[in-house]
Amino acid sequence: MTANVYPGAFGARKFSINRNTGVPRPARRFSIGEPSATEASSKIHRQFRAAHEGHLPHAGLDATRASTGVVWCTERAGEHGFFDEPDKWANLGQGAPEVEDDIEGCFPRPKTIDISVSSREYGPTAGIKPLREAVARLYNEMHRKGQPSQYTWENVAIVPGGRAGLIRIAAVLNNAYVGFFIPDYTAYNEMLSLFKNFAAIPVPLAEEDGYHIHPDKIAEEIARGTGVIITSNPRNPTGRVVANPELAEIQDICRDRATLVSDEFYSGYNYTSDCDGTTISAAENVMDVDEDDVLIIDGLTKRFRLPGWRVAWIIGPKEFIKAIGSCGSYLDGGTNVPFQQAAIPMLEPELVKKEMKALQHHFRDKRDYVVSRLRKMGFVIKHVPDSTFYLWLNLEGLPTPIADGLNFFQACLEEKVIVVPGIFFDLNPARRRDLFDSPCHHFVRFSYGPKLETLKMGCDGIERVVKKFRDLEKRGSGEA
């Protein structure tokens, strides 16, 4: 939903919606444009409003804190029977890769783990030293060959998953403006909401150029006082990547001016170098591993296809890694020790290189399949993703009843398909903004992480949705 407005103009403010009845009530600040008839009459929109009240204040306990975008979507799918028969559904919403051992060229994952007596004890909250050494060795081999400054185990903290890593980073941030981009990873919402030691500043990116992060945008944010910048790269949900030389330019701009937090969980899903196994990382452009304020977060979750293991890492200057390791003592208690021990052999650099090459070929083939299917259905895909396993799918041009993310999501549920409405990636920490004017309304995130069989089933379901509403549109216009 869009509206023509000018800065400071409030004459076109829309009505707010009563969270229980869905009935419009008097206008409130920061809203623009009236809700469309489609939104006002939509059950799924009313459910979303009930759970996400824009910037209205809350008192006491807030039960909606528990619900991220994917969780909310899964709960709605559960209302349609997803939990009873998950095998009959195409879950294209969960941000997870296929975990089976049948990708040609990939090494088989452990099916059993040898649990040592020592691993029964509490482990260090910064992770066990052998795994920290293995991570440092991997980054030095893949990203820092020939550079005088090398990572050591003291530059690595092992954390129990990406979200735990983000929360640990948030805990050690100083009083600062923290810039984040829109759209981006949904879990940043909670990271940027729960801690009061910094102020979160949204930085909208332009749809016209594929939501690309330009170096001049970084310079502009630093010039207005931003001291920390957090972003996923490769980018979730758009599937784009900031690669060198632009990434190096961004790091040069940040050096001695701002801390860059680079979420690199999709670093292996890189299709920009013809699937030769090359991964994307800010580690390549760090001048001094203990001086450059660059924190890198990654792990086994995505590129090693082990989301259930909850083994991830943060890399950065020693003094910050020490603090990040220590704060695990009161935040999460540290990472499961047996799984840390089992992860060490996986990080041998030559093995990883072969793994990434096989991974990239396999997922690029899946990307090409879904892009071809969706284009045949009439979807306009201006920017084919050059990384990750996501499509940021524009719904403009579809029949009006399914031309926004929430209603398209609802229609897909009827066909046992799950996608994620784009509005969840319009990050809104502490709910300070009204999201019903969101530029992400007419998008959904489509994941081609699952197996090809699931993708085929999902595309078949989406095709039925599109055909159904196009037929209704034709009948309504008298064309049928």
From TrEMBL:
Coiled coil: none annotated. InterPro entries: Aminotransferase_I/II_large (IPR004839), AspAT/PAT-like (IPR050596), PyrdxlP-dep_Trfase (IPR015424), PyrdxlP-dep_Trfase_major (IPR015421). CDD domains: AAT_like. It comes from the Eukaryota. One of its GO terms (biological process) is amino acid metabolic process. GO terms for molecular function: pyridoxal phosphate binding; transaminase activity. Keywords: Aminotransferase, Pyridoxal phosphate, Transferase. Gene3D superfamilies: Type I PLP-dependent aspartate aminotransferase-like (Major domain). Residues 91-460 form the Aminotransferase class I/classII large domain. Its cofactor is pyridoxal 5'-phosphate. Pfam families: Aminotran_1_2. Belongs to the class-I pyridoxal-phosphate-dependent aminotransferase family. This is Pyridoxal phosphate-dependent transferase.
